[in-house]
Amino acid sequence: MEIKKSLNGNHLTVAVCGRLDTTTAPDLERELKASFGSIDKLTLDFTDLAYISSAGLRVMLSAEREMSCKGGMTVKGVNDDVMEVLDVTGFSDILTFE
Predict the structure, then answer these.
(1) Quick one: pLDDT at residue 67?
(2) Domain spanning 2-97: CATH 3.30.750.24
(3) Mind spelling out the 3-state secondary structure of the chain?
(4) pTM (2 decimals)?
């Protein structure tokens, strides 16, 4: 997995490439936690995300909770395979998509 961060003022965009699974989710979690104090809005860019597991979903839920008391979190670029996981787990009902 590769993580690319782009900060525009207090809006952080995090592009995740590859697989977000048990092995890689802790890396994303660390990157997000390190940024929470200095941002008001978060966008997760999943354009190049091929797979997400329950560990990745847990990181997303944690980020959503953290950002809900700030400017919010959006998810963009979700492919059909990842969206199917988000739909089946109910995450598509609680997340905001661009």
Answers:
(1) 96
(2) yes
(3) CEEEEEEECCEEEEEEEEEECCCCHHHHHHHHHHHHHHCCEEEEECCCEEEECHHHHHHHHHHHHHHHCCCCEEEECCCHHHHHHHHHHCHHHHCEEC
(4) 0.95
Q: What angle do CA 12, 98, 35 make, to 5 degrees?
A: 15
* Sign of the C-alpha dihedral computed for residues 39, 8, 41 and 77 taken in this order: negative
**What number of residues does the chain have?**
98
Residue ranges covered by each domain of the chain: 2-97
pLDDT digits (tens, 9 = 90+) for 46-71: 999 999 999 999 999 999 999 999 99
The pair of three-digit structure tokens given for residue 90, joined into one six-digit string: 């109910």
Dist CA 5 CA 45 (whole Å)? 10
